[in-house]
């Protein structure tokens, strides 16, 4: 029985091999077809500007409140929680662990009073 199965396996694989046309799996890449940037090509590029129209859609992932764009620091600010999300290359980094704590103004009207 084992010889029968082994015989069928060999003959089937030979038949498949005969019908399959060998094709190279990886296309050869020539240096002219690939754009390569090296570290010496990188210059001090200005950061891409943030598209302010995204503020209509972006909210703080923690409080779900709207954010304010601060152009001077290039950050999205959540006034309620006092955190700032950085923007790098025009893309906001909305990961809460990457956010920076900012100092809130000492406004007594928003802080609850203890009685």
Automatic annotation (TrEMBL):
The keyword Mitochondrion applies. Keywords: Mitochondrion, Transit peptide. It is found in: Mitochondrion. Coiled coil: none annotated. Its main location: mitochondrion. SUPFAM superfamilies: Trm112p-like (SSF158997). One of its GO terms (cellular component) is mitochondrion. It comes from the Eukaryota. Belongs to the PREY family. This is Protein preY, mitochondrial.
């Amino acid at each position: 029985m084992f010889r029968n199965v082994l015989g069928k396996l060999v003959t089937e694989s030979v038949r498949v091999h005969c019908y399959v046309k060998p094709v190279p799996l990886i296309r050869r890449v020539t240096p002219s077809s690939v754009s390569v940037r090296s570290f010496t090509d990188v210059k001090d590029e200005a950061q891409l500007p943030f598209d302010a129209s995204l503020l209509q859609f972006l909210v703080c992932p923690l409080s779900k409140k709207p954010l304010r764009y601060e152009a001077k620091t290039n950050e999205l600010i959540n006034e309620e929680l006092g955190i700032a999300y950085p923007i790098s290359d025009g893309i906001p980094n909305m990961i809460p662990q990457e956010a920076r704590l900012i100092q809130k103004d000492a406004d007594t009207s928003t802080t609850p009073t203890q009685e």
